[in-house]
Design brief:
By secondary structure, this protein is α/β, with parallel strands linked by helices. The protein is built from eleven helices and seven strands. A hairpin with a 5-residue loop joins strand 2 and strand 3 (40-46).
């Protein structure tokens, strides 16, 4: 089933130096932009992460320090990527929890002003886990009836995710979903807003869930001793909290969100 799009939808996959959103970096990025008329554009970049790739990680994705030593840094290609994804929504496999947050961090480090939170996100892994409880290779075999070749190659995984999402629509278009509380949701529909909502796991204000919305739409802290307390209350009553966040190992986007709330209070 072809996708019903209002805006272009960018499928993406990142290969990185590791799984830490704060400290790890991109070594390869693959993008497929699907336009509302069905036409597609592909972009793929190897990236110099300006740090060594651990050997155990290189053995997974096949990219070694020697392969990327002469490649551009992310900062050097950030504006080109930003232009390519301008006005687009996003889709990936585990992208809501990893690829999108890490990409947002890289843009902030490169001083490129692009707020990905304004976009819609579809996570084919979330749909898959809610409906079938499997992995990408299993998802590809299950939905597309063929083995996934070159797994952990960024472009192969990106193309596989695109095919999986279309096949998911073919399979689930008329089905209803029962969540853990026994609530029956609306049937999956070929609509980016609905798919984005269905594949969301959370109500994060930032990407990693340090700050979330409560049931009333109020931003609250979601970790530590202040968990569940409104951000504005914490900033008012604990003057040192803001500085503590800024001076410690938190994602740049989390710091950006907290700064925006603090400025809004003034």
């Amino acid at each position: 089933m072809n996708l019903n799009l209002r805006n272009p939808l960018v499928f993406l996959d990142l290969e990185t130096t590791g799984m830490n959103i704060v400290t790890d970096r991109i070594v390869e990025i693959a993008l497929i932009k699907v336009h509302p008329d069905g036409t597609e554009e592909e972009k793929q970049y190897r990236v110099n992460p300006e740090m060594p790739i651990p050997e155990v990680v290189s053995k997974i994705h096949g990219i070694y320090d020697e392969d990327i030593k002469d490649k551009p840094t992310f900062k050097e290609i950030a504006k080109t990527i930003a232009q390519f994804i301008e006005g687009c929504d996003f889709a990936g496999f585990n992208s809501n929890r990893f690829d999108i947050p890490l990409l947002a961090e890289e843009f902030l480090r490169a001083d490129v002003d692009i707020d990905l939170k304004k976009r819609k996100f579809i996570d084919a892994q979330a749909i898959f886990h809610k409906m079938e409880k499997r992995t990408l290779a299993a998802a590809y075999k299950f939905y597309c009836q063929k083995p996934l070749e070159d797994a952990h190659s960024a472009m192969a995984d990106t193309k596989a995710t695109y095919e999986v999402l279309k096949a998911q629509l073919d399979q689930y278009i008329d089905e209803e979903y029962e969540d853990h509380a026994g609530k029956i949701s609306k049937p999956i529909v070929n609509d980016i807003q609905a798919l984005s909502e269905f594949s969301a796991y959370d109500t994060n204000v930032d990407f990693v869930g340090r700050i979330v919305y409560d049931e009333k739409g109020v931003e609250i802290i979601n970790f530590g001793k202040n968990k569940g307390i409104p951000v504005e209350k914490v900033l008012r009553e604990q003057p040192g909290y803001y500085g503590w966040i800024l001076n410690n190992e938190f994602p740049l986007y989390t710091k950006k969100v907290l700064t925006a709330i603090k400025l809004r209070m003034k």
